[in-house]
Amino acid sequence: MDIRELEYFVTVSELENFTAAAKRLHISQPAISKSVHKLEEELGFHLLDRTQKRVSLTEEGKVFLTLAQDILSRILDAQNTMAEYKTLTRGTFRIAVPPLLGAYVFPDLFAAFKDKYPSLEMLVIEDGSSAAIDLVQEENVHVGLIILPPDSTDFHSHLITSQQIVVCLPTDHPLSKEPFLTFDQLKDEPMILYNEGFLLRQIILDEYAKIGATPKVALSTNQIQTIKAFVAKGVGISFLPVNSIKEARHMTKIPLSPRLFLDMGLIWKPDKVLPLACKAFIDFVNNYSYND
């Protein structure tokens, strides 16, 4: 039994005539008669009564017609659905986005992508960049929009923006008027950092390790608004990409010396078969110009 046999049987049943069915399907009458007869042999009973001028359904044929129509309808739905996926009028993919990028890089990128592909759906998982890398590696998400690690050879990647990391201090801090700051100047300051598992935290800890200092971590959080609020209250200093603090009350930002940057971009596994919607997103990001 194949789809063509079902289609021939349904058409003959609806038109009650082999000749009319053959004309509609653009095949010969002997071919359609042979196909329906083969179907009857496979099932083991007559589907059509051919004793009258017009073909009619047997009792078994009436039951099978309903089933065949349902099968063909489902096949058509499947074909139409997959055509929508192919033409990018339907589709979904999973993306991991750290809170920092989710707040300041992802919204513009997401809005621009949705403007071009309004029917495609992103399932967003928020977690730190380190966790996002694991999610991509373990194939729990298709792509990660992350702070790019120094070594990302296990993945394909695309840089979206490189942001300068600045020191964030309360406006009345004694160092707030300095043109730039070094880690030596900051080594005794209490700090507010992202939680463990966030690459920005590790980058800062690595910089302290280079000067042989142990940072005084007063508070760890995964919320950038919490970091800003506690810096403004004088609980400690922090380090954030410059684009994340365009507007911050009672807080000032000062460049580091030497300057320190965060590379932000997209990663995905090179050997992973990705949904077409995800491929469209990657292509879009590859041609996207981020304006910070």
Task: Give me a quick take on this structure.
The protein has 292 residues and is of the alpha/beta class.
Describe the model.
The chain is an alpha/beta fold and 292 residues long. It has three domains: 3-86, Arc Repressor Mutant, subunit A (Orthogonal Bundle), CATH 1.10.10; 91-160 and 265-286, Periplasmic binding protein-like II (D-Maltodextrin-Binding Protein, domain 2); 162-262, D-Maltodextrin-Binding Protein, domain 2 (3-Layer(aba) Sandwich), CATH 3.40.190.290. The chain contains eleven helices and ten strands. Strands 4-3-5-10-6-9 form a six-stranded mixed sheet, with helices on both faces. A hairpin with a 6-residue loop joins strand 1 (48-49) and strand 2 (56-57). The chain is rod-shaped.
Secondary-structure map with pairings?
Blueprint: H1 3-15, H2 18-25, H3 29-43, E1 48-49, E2 56-57, H4 59-86, E3 91-97, H5 99-104, H6 106-116, E4 120-126, H7 129-137, E5 143-147, E6 156-170, H8 183-186, E7 190-194, H9 199-210, E8 216-221, H10 224-232, E9 238-241, E10 251-268, H11 276-286
Parallel strand pairs: 3-4, 3-5, 7-8
Antiparallel strand pairs: 1-2, 5-10, 6-9, 6-10
Helix pairs in contact: 1-2, 1-3, 1-4, 2-3
Give the tags.
alpha/beta; two-stranded antiparallel ribbon; Arc Repressor Mutant, subunit A; D-Maltodextrin-Binding Protein, domain 2; about 290 residues; 11 helices; six-stranded mixed beta sheet; 10 strands
